Amino acid sequence: MSMSDSDTSSQGEYKNFRQISRDRLLYEMLRTAKRGDSRSTWKVLIMDKVTVKIMSCSCKMADITEEGVSLVEDIYKRRQPLPTMDAIYFIQPSKENVVMFLSDMSGRSPLYKRAFVFFSSSVPRELVSYIKRDTTVKSRMGALSEMNLEYFAIDSQGFITDDERALEELFGDEESSRKGDACLTVMATRIATVFASLREFPLVRYRAAKSLDPTTMTTFRDLIPTKLAAGVWNCLMKYKSSIENFPQTETCELLILDRSIDQIAPIIHEWTYDAMCHDLLNMEGNKYVHEVPSKTGGLPEKKEVLLEEHDPVWAELRHAHIADASERLHEKMTSFVSKNKAAQIHGSRDGGELSTRDLQKMVQALPQYSEQIDKLSLHVDIAAKINKIIREMGLKEVGQLEQDLVFGDAGTKEVINFLRTKPEVSRESKMRLLMIYAAIYPEKFEGDKIAKLMELARLPTEDMHAVYNMRLLEGTSDTKKSSSAFSLKFDVHKKKHAVRKDRTDEEAKWQLSRFYPIIEELIEKLCKGELPKNDYPCMNDPSPTFHGTSQAASAHTNQGPPAHSMRSRRTATWARPRNSDDGYSSDSILKHASSDFKKMGQRLFVFIVGGATRSELRVCHKLTTKLKREIVLGSSSLDDPPQFITKLKMLTAHELSLDDLQI
Known about the structure:
By secondary structure, this protein is of the alpha/beta class. The chain contains 28 helices and 13 strands.
């Protein structure tokens, strides 16, 4: 059974990117092992370190159990023989994995009764022959299939190829085309499996390599999007002839970029709830350690929670500005108390307006303090912690200067003044400020201006590496061209550089919400048919029937209501409506999600080599609503500023490893 896009839409129910990935793993893989003469009720699921991560990104253990899996095993660990049970192997098509599988199932005493084998990507012919040569194993196999699903669905509209070393291997100062090519080959294979999985055939566009003049040599770094586009295209051509029901003409679009397109987005302070959690709190992935009051009145208990889309409060607030999120949490607490007589009696003793913290304590004291309120209480705690860090670290002033630099309202003079008058600002904030400065003024590397600023900031040597390594991410010519044009035209008037223009169609409702990632502009231009073909060429000429960009998309947007500020909207349309009574029901979130996707145009995929940011993921959610097209963000990794800066330091730190730097 193929859970393709056409399958789902024909039933009148639009499934988003992550839902399709989940359905394929559960129904196309696990459920098919129940068919035929396989009568065993429970099965063993065997995976390798890559496929176990693929599975955990899309499915929960309860989903897997429901499909008849009672045990999940690692192919490389010693396993107990279970000769009465069937096994499902979900593995990468490597020689090592195949050898392990054959050793499990061959001989007189195989570990399992029957084996259903599913490979995460295309299997080389020699490996298939190798398996078929063992006749005893062949007779014990219930299936041998290619799932072509080797990506990690980290969000309903986001995936990674999980290459933490991509930045180092592709942008490092010691260019190694052998290492770089190997990295891009794996990346291309994994990206292509996204389209195999969704049964989508994209129009592939990429950022072209440019040089200032014919004498400038094109480097490996300049050609990263070109090489990756060619790699993805080669895989897609194979799919066209080998995968049943794979589209023969374009059904969606793919735009391939790299990190040099926007050096500022991974470093600047992003002021949304999701980004602040991952930037300022010591989280491990999506895991947050929360202290809850002890039921016995003793010390608070530590509890691990996951901040994920299935939490309706998180789903509603994650893309909201931190000030907006705090305000809305206070309103939710107030609303609960106003509807609860016991809470009103409890709170009326002191009189006066109650803080969110007071409201939280009152709610926790109530007998009907439930799991739903527990969720709300968790987010009140997190928001309070973030706001405290913002105050203690003076981040509002840092953030203001960062945004003023980006929009050309501040320059060298303001940076010097800030560093001189704010010695108490943290070393990390000063480093990030100077990294943004270096991205805006790359020409300052030529003299000693940046070195003097780092001296003034008293940055240690390892932080200086991060600032200097911004040079390795310089765009091939866009920055240089614009900066030279600026200096010729505007120096007389002492104008400052601006690397972003204020968006006239949007009002910034909250302080420090002016900044937007460059991909927002690129996606909108692509959908209007305004993205220059010279700068972003196509791998394939679109067929005459393809209406992905200009006509269809602009017709879609023109028919809609007049443009209005998306930033000022209180909730995204897929989240809980603001005036509902409680907003804790996950059913209501799912209902809004599916109804929002019912009348969607063709999907648009944007892939960024070298790491994507939470601000870029937020933009994809926002533009999905605005442009009525599901926009899926892909990257080699999803990086928060601390991770990205560590990776940036690695570009010249050959003697160090990621383990030493503890990413």
